[in-house]
Amino acid sequence: MQVILANPRGFCAGVDRAIDIVERALTLFGKPIYVRHEVVHNKFVVEDLRNKGAVFVEELDEVPDGATVIFSAHGVARSVVQEAERRGLRVFDATCPLVTKVHMEVDRHARRGEEVILIGHAGHPEVDGTLGQYDRSHGGEMYLVETVEDAERIQIRNPDALAYVTQTTLSVDDTLDIIETLKSRFPNIQGQKRDDICYATQNRQDAVKQLASVCDLFLVVGSPNSSNSNRLREIAEKLGVEAYLVDNADQIEDRWLEGKTQVGVTAGASAPELLVQEVVEHLRANGMNTVTEHGGKRENIVFSLPKALR
Ligand code: 0JX
Ligand code: SF4
Question: Which CATH class is domain 13-96?
Answer without folding.
Answer: alpha beta
